[in-house]
């Protein structure tokens, strides 16, 4: 399988703080690539650089062979990368369908969608409406399409963020802690949803603290500590790595073997 994303020597400094330091890794097409590490390790900063929300201090990010580290978020999106955020970000006073439409229209037309409402300059085409409805159906929110997004539960808001991201028709979907804050049944459903996204041919990059969920999904695992790569590779090796156990996993390490994908 070819490489879809290649990160080389990526560093991000905020003043004296190195939020990411010389990170290098690559993601193969159709892989589920998991990222974990202690709070403040630099995981979201890494996502912010890949999605164009903040430029790196140095290093390169190649997506399907093209350097993208200087692109704006909408340009990154048009190349086929979509993301969700740790805390659900939805247009609360808009309907569920309007939120998904922002994704399908943004993915095709570009432009910026700002503030608390869907930008009036966006005029939706029939195919964009179809795309938005398909994305809602995919995540299981079709029957709530007319509801205001702010009335949704956290679980549904998370699913809506995924639907909006999918409506841009990404080749790579980046999920920032999709499972955090959910109950057990919801966590299982979310894991199933990510599997379904991946089975549809989308490569997935996922940050997650809930290791059982992460291990149920990940084909490869990267552990970041103080902005640096602590370990990377086959999840079954990474969770047995002494440094990973010492710095991050602790007591839970032994129980996690049973949670491995395919295990
Ligand atoms: N815009 C910013 N300005 C200054 N410092 C920042 C900025 N964004 C992040 N940082 C710092 O960079 C470091 C890495 O933060 P980041 O949010 O990437 O970590 P994380 O691994 O995603 O953490 P968590 O697991 O808590 O979400 C932290 O020390 C954070 O305070």
Could you describe the 3D structure shown?
The protein has ten helices and ten strands. A hairpin with a 2-residue loop joins strand 1 (3-14) and strand 2. The chain has helices at 43-50, 73-79, 96-109, 126-139, 154-166, 184-199, 211-217, 235-238, 242-249, 253-256, and strands spanning 3-14, 17-28, 32-36, 58-63, 66-67, 81-83, 172-176, 203-207, 220-225, 228-233. A six-stranded mixed β-sheet has the order 6-7-8-3-9-10, sandwiched between helices. The chain is α/β, with parallel strands linked by helices and 263 residues long. The longest helix is centred in the last third of the chain and has 16 residues, at 184-199. The structure holds adenosine-5'-triphosphate. Adenosine-5'-triphosphate binds next to strand 2 and helix 1.
What is the radius of gyration?
18 Å
Strand content: 15-25%
Mass-distribution shape: globular
Number of DSSP helical runs: 10
| End-to-end CA span | 23 Å
Question: Assembly state here?
Answer: single chain
Write the H/E string, N to C: EEEHEEHEHHHEHEHEEHHH
What would the average pLDDT be, to the nearest integer?
91
Got a strand count? 10
Structural class: alpha/beta
How are the strands ordered across the major sheet?
A: 6-7-8-3-9-10
The kinds of small molecule bound in this structure are: adenosine-5'-triphosphate
The helical percent reads 25-40%
How would you characterize the largest beta sheet?
Answer: 6 strands, mixed
Poorly predicted runs are 111-117
